[in-house]
Each structure stands twice: as structure tokens, then as C-alpha cells.
Design goal:
This protein is mostly helical and 147 residues long. It has 4 helices and 2 strands. 59% of the residues lie in helices and 4% in strands. A hairpin with a 2-residue loop joins strand 1 and strand 2. Helix 1 packs antiparallel against helix 2. The chain starts with 7 loop residues before the first helix and ends in an 8-residue tail after the last helix.
Length: 147
Amino acid sequence: MIREHATLRQQQELNWAALQAFRTLAGRVLEELQKEHGDGEGEPSGATPPPGAQASGPSGPTTAPGATTDPGDTDSLQQAIGDLENINAHLFSIEALMERIFDVRVPEEVEQKFREVAGELAPDPLNADRLRLNRLLHQTPDLPDRG
């Protein structure tokens, strides 16, 4: 990713897009889980839990008479929902910080320095010299077998 997006601006845009994708997906999963299993404050009206799931109300987990469910499953699901809520809160905070990064503008000479350093950190794997070096390394008899 460094080689393909070697400037400050490209890295800003790439990270912004990744953040938005992560926030969108995590938010949607949280919404779906809250619809299906409630958010710890009772079930939404008209929601039917999937087979084997149990409703959780103010008095704690409830099950149908004769049904066997594991209270640990409900507890771990509610814990996961709480964790997702925390993740989303952190993602919103990161988004606010990322917006400040977009205010930074650097001259072209600095962008060129980004390109140079990116080339050092992530050289082109199809470069002829690199291909020859890799071929030599793989032919060295004192390297341990990978099998």
C-alpha cells in the first residue's frame, strides 16, 4: 500500500476511505444485532429471536418453559454489542481527528520526499535487480528447506 499510494495526500485519502468503510460496516452490524437481540433494554417490538436465542429483559434472561439455552451465550452477545458500541464511539473520535489531518497541505518537494521514502520502504517487487536477487537467494544451498 505504501508503494501504490506513496504521497501524503494519497495516504490521507486511503486512510479516510478505510475508516469510513470500517465505521459503516461496524455500525450496520451493530444495528442488525440490536434489532435481532435487543440492546440490553428489552427486545424491539415484533422481533423474533432466532432459534436457540433467548430474550433479555429488565429482569434478566428469560426462556420459554422447557427450553434449554445457555445464559453465557446471551451474556457474550450482549458483551459483543457493548464492545461494538465502544468501537463505533472510537471510530467517530478517529474520524474527527482525521478531518484535521486533511487540513495539512505540504509542498510538492515534501510529496516527492514521501515518494522517495516509499520507494525505500516498499520497493517494486518486479524490479529486475530485485528479481535476480530473489532468484539467487532461492538457489542458495545453505538456506533451510521450506518443506
